[in-house]
């Protein structure tokens, strides 16, 4: 377990700052959502068009519309998590509803140019789903969560009373000092420093039992306004203005307890809870082209600008209870006791990574009648520069502390993450009014450190029905998402983390009517 360059950051998550590198990855490392048809073919829609999802992938595909339609896409997901933490395997699960692309597409011909058509779309889709429940536990004889508060207090340069009175520590080390989970101890005849009482357990060679419970919910819902034009059924050009609405809620409870039978080592247990909410609205632009060199081949290219979230707002609260046995017994405290009942709050700007995509498709059909499409195979290659996320202050006149913090945070993002390639392939076979589909997708590792592994693999299949202006598609997607979770980070020790494996079953249905 390697030590992260995250330690370049100031250790304090103060009343002014709460952002960490994981926040950047949360808003960029997730699979492409879509209609049931698109999900069934692995999400590969960059060169096909003719589906409402193209507004979010390659808007040039809207140019294939020559009539209008209304579409709605509900879904249901089943999360099953397997987490390994220091050799102990843990299981958890959570189910949630989702929303694929839903809205209107209006296609029409050009009265002055017989071989030209246009399309306009207005849609909404849940582009990211944060609903999940993760619990893990294990034995740790190497480090304690409370050590991070001792480090924070030591680096503050302040006394215990000063830290308790300083609002920037109200959600972290002030709680630990109040409950005497962290205090000053003489470790040498002339050396006194901040230490957590849980370290006495580690000093004796005993292990701490650690438990972490993370409940999250929310998502990103993006409203998309799209336009495309089709020239001679050869060249399609389109663009989409996206307005993502972000809401994320997280409640984390971390518990640590002594596993020894010693009741005189100054530590029994502690339980720390933090609630955290992020909300805001952003804007982005997607643009693309599709070129058909022959009636069988389609080539696509699309680019997605960074989403600009202006004035994202974070709020959070914390509480801590601790049992330090003969040292100071049991005590508890909340951040509200230090802040007159007010939560911590910060506002900032976030720029998510740039995305680029190349795509290709081969369409099997009768050459004499181009309307009789029989099958197709298609694929996308997408690049996402995860290290390109940028946080900035939203203050009109940011202080030097603001500038220094976000500069350090952005440096860590560049050092910790890398650009990654995503691959999506799929195909469809048509049997008159019934269609069968299969797909595969792989989303690559965004971490630079070779010790950290993350990926997302999706297998999908579905069926569709189209007749008399009505279509219904049903799809099942099975995905395996591998990632890591750091319960805490320390300055003077290698950081321990949990390896997570999320198995997600997603059932999606799309219903549409030609207007």
Task: Give descriptors for this structure.
515 residues; mainly beta; Porin; 14-stranded antiparallel barrel; two-stranded antiparallel ribbon; 8 helices; 11% helix; elongated; disordered N terminus
Strands, helices and their partners?
Blueprint lengths: L20 H6 L9 H5 L28 E4 L1 E12 L2 E12 L2 E8 L6 E14 L2 E9 L6 H10 L3 H6 L7 H6 L3 E7 L2 E6 L2 H5 L4 E24 L3 E24 L10 E23 L5 E8 L3 E16 L6 E5 L1 H4 L4 E8 L3 E11 L7 E13 L4 E4 L6 H17 L2 E13 L2 E10 L11 E13 L2 E16 L12 E17 L1
Antiparallel strand pairs: 1-4, 1-23, 2-3, 2-23, 4-5, 5-9, 6-9, 7-8, 9-10, 10-11, 11-12, 11-13, 12-16, 13-14, 13-15, 15-18, 16-17, 17-19, 19-20, 20-21, 21-22, 22-23
Top-tier CATH class: Mainly Beta
The total beta strand count reads 23
What portion of residues is helical?
10-25%
CATH homologous superfamily descriptor: Outer membrane protein transport protein (OMPP1/FadL/TodX)
Lateral arrangement of strands in the main beta sheet: 1-4-5-9-10-11-12-16-17-19-20-21-22-23
Structural class by SSE content: mainly beta
As for the CATH topology, it is Porin
Rg value: 26 Å
Provide the number of structural domains.
1
